[in-house]
Amino acid sequence: QVQLVESGGGLVQAGGSLRLSCAASGRTFSRYAMGWFRQAPGKEREFVAAISWGGGMTYYKDSVKGRFTISRDNVKNTVYLQMNSLKPEDTAVYYCTAGVYPRPDDYWGQGTQVTVSS
After folding, report:
1. Which one-letter DSSP state was computed for residue 64?
2. What pLDDT, on the 0 to 100 scale, is given for residue 28?
3. How far apart are CA 97 and CA 95, in angstroms?
């Protein structure tokens, strides 16, 4: 079992940056691939990014490539999502997840709101 707690969401202007963090509990954190999903109002939840258990492989939704970077620290049991050049269409609740690469969706955090104003 893995428990996930996100932080770092907030309100930012278009073109700005935010870094989301996800703290994981459980001794087996390093065995899981980690990911980020998001859900905008009135839309289905969608995949954003994933990172393999060792951090050597990453995978991104096309629309965030070159703007978002996923990383992890297996000593701190934390995964990050650095989001640059944010756009209003990035506005959503962002969820941290754990599971199997490249779509780790077995465990979910409670979500953190990201709002990008135009």
Report:
1. G
2. 83
3. 6
β strands within 30-74, DSSP E: 33-39, 46-51, 58-60, 68-73
- Closest to 57 (Cα-Cα) out of 96, 8, 103: 103
Q: Quote the Cα angle for 106-108-111, to 5°.
A: 155
Mean pLDDT, range 102-108, rounded to an integer: 96
Confidence band, pLDDT 50/70/90 cuts, at residue 59? very high
- CA gap 78, 5 in Å, rounded: 10
User: What is the model's pLDDT at position 22?
Assistant: 98
Dihedral Cα 70, 73, 74, 79, nearest 10 deg: -40
Tokens, residue 46: 């969608």
Mind listing the pLDDT tens digit for each residue in 13-51?
999 999 999 999 986 888 999 999 999 999 999 999 999
In whole angstroms, give the CA distance from residue 35 to residue 43: 19
Q: Are strands 10-13 and 112-117 parallel, antiparallel or unpaired?
A: parallel
